[in-house]
TrEMBL record:
Biased composition (Polar residues): 792-809
Location of this chain's protein in the cell: Golgi apparatus membrane
Top-level division of the source organism's lineage: Eukaryota
Annotated Pfam families: adh_short, Anp1
Protein name, UniProt field: Anp1-domain-containing protein
Gene Ontology molecular-function annotations: alpha-1,6-mannosyltransferase activity
Coiled coil ranges: none
One Gene Ontology CC term in the entry: mannan polymerase complex
Amino acid sequence: MGTPLVGTAIITGGNGLLGSEIAVAIAKAQPFVHLLLVARDIRSDSVKDVTDRIRLVGPRSVEVVKADLACFNSIVSFSQNTVERVRSKEIPPVILLINSAAISSYVTDQVTRDGYDPVYQTNCIAPFLLTVSLLEAFRAGDGTPNGGARVINVGCSAMSKGSLDYFDNEDPESAAQPPGTPMSTKEATSRFGSSKLLMSAAMYALRRSLVLNGNIALNVYTMDPGGLTGESHQTTTAPLSVRMAHQTRSGLRPFLRVFSKSAINKASVPAKVIARVAFQKETVENWGRERYYILDSEYEAGSVIPALRDVARMDALLQKVMRQVEMGVKGMGSPQSRVSRLTAREMNRHHAFSNGYAAYPRGKGSTNNTFSISPHRFQPRPQPALRRRRQLLQRLCLIAAVSTLLLVLIFPSFRAFFLPAVSLGIVSSAEDLQLETVRYYDLSQMQGSGSGWEQGERVLMCTPLRDASSHLPMFFSHLRNLTYPHNLIDLAFLVSDSKDDTMEMLSDMLDELQNDPDRSMSFGEISVIQKDFGQKVTQDVESRHGFAAQASRRKLMAQARNWLLSATLRPTHSWVYWRDADVLTAPQTILEDLMRHDKDVIVPNVWRPLPDWLGGEQPYDLNSWQESETALALAETLDEDAVIVEGYAEYATWRPHLAYLRDPYGDPDMEMELDGVGGVSILAKARVFRAGVHFPAFSFEKHAETEGFGKMARRMGFSVIGLPHYTIWHLYEPSVDDLRHMEEMEQERQEREREEQEQAERAERVQTLFKDAKTQWDIDNAIVEDAIQEEGQGQESEDLTPSSGADSTKGSEEGPVAQPAAKEQGSVDSALEEPTTDRKQAKQ
């Protein structure tokens, strides 16, 4: 699933303060761009630092070449080699050139070998010559706003103090001063600013000429990064007063940025802006504009450089720079030269060509002074003798090249002598050779440490998949929740013997993950490998965990793991993390938690949840254990190809299992030495696999796959550790017996619900037919009490009513007659007592 490179980005001064930050920013934003860094000394520590930083970003195509901008021959040699490599498709077409290299000087300098001020040549003429020499490499564009190439010139605020004729009006007194004479800060600033101003103006003039001819789609920008903090060669060679002023501005950076965000910044700030501007999509309107950037603010170039509005002056400047470039190149006058010669008059020597095209009009009839590139080839017709001599030389060169190639192929020792000679001065020795197809890695830096997330250590996460479409949503949810930096994690999947839509679902979910709006969710390199191993054991629980299928199944699983690891392990990986897709829950910090122990191989405890009627939870992974004497004795009695598997009654090993030692309240950092490990979750250092440890697909000490991996790692002296109290939970998959029992329980539940419903209906019918006895008794009791009260009131009224006959009788015959009256009164009292007794009984 490799993606081809889309283009080449050349950065001069790639090991400088700003150039290195630009390279890192482009590596982060554009992973499919080939970075070609130009440095004067490719063996310096700064070159090593920037390449190491780019490697930490991820797998990137980066190359460092040697070229001295103070030497025209070195620039042209580099350009010729680059153009040839583009033509031969060794590298993709050049789509970006960033002129970041620059020098400043506060003393009078000796002129270069080409006869120019070193500040002027490095900052102005060299970038112009490099741009013109690479025109053929720029021809990859199609002339549209999205096509063509871009040239970004790094300017400076000192351009406002410079002038276009600074290097033309040479002061006689300054010319008479010996090299090394100190210059004033004002003069040095004007000198540096003038060189940058001339470079920008000449580049814009070149672009105008190219646009008028319509041959090459080339867009030129100038970007003023503002003040930069940090030490560079420009500040270290400055006078003490300049250095102190720079340190003061650096200390006041937060306050200065309140007034101007370009006042002073870290080098990474303008580097990110350049990386964004260099690859932003253009519109037709913007493509025709000449733009000037001050940090991320865009302006018209003519408003910053007023001289651009003077067309005649720009044409004269372009002609002058082209003449200086022509005179500065030594020994580059052949038609295959990459330097275009510009002149308005006929010259008595043959003309130079830029990439096979005439670089300027020739002859007496040429009256147009505007620089142009014509698509018509022109080459002086050689004399017959010269033509014969050239054919002879070509044949001799061909024979010499074939002989040299044979010597290099047959005798490798000759390579150290021939390769520097044919490198056109780009490299000086065999150690400096940097080719696109050659990668240099220092594996001593990829050992793995206990704080890998702080050291930027890359992790390869491997996951074998088979009929796992139902588990992928849960697995990708775990991936998103990982707290380890996602850009440092490379994912590797092996899809084998699947009959469902695992591959289609995996592709869709990976695409969704990598295109997440939150860029922190995106992972590094992702590899998906499809390979069938003829696995005939089905994926149901009974088949996968049946004893009869264990030996053959685990040997095939070991092959799958080895295929996946060997195809995806890169020299940049420090750790390898194996993770099954059917893990139910795991801590988000599992990588950091396991890595913190700094062990060669480490595994957590693995349990699984169960239904309440099965106990609620159960140890799952029994493949993590310590060796026992019983197991060693058992191994001696088995055949050579036999494989011992744990958790089955057929092999009673009596080993201490990591799973059975779990304490929910124990210390999660407690360690336990192991001999065998399970494969649900394994974190191992990459050096373990590089040393030769693998998953044996055969009987290794009577074990295979992950258990054999643990045995082999211990055999080779690596530490194998388990964490008994650090637990992750595996998905519960019911067996056939569990499913049968669950069906019986479901039937019982339905029967119980049916009985409860019938009882409720029966009770409702009884309540409807029969009233409440207590309520009826209260009603009857109240009626009885009312009747008794009424009867008592009637009796009292009769007793209180007097009769004349009775009174007369009572007065005349008090004694005899009183007795019946008393008896009658007693009968009335007894009659009144009887209702009272009845009332008490009723109440009781």
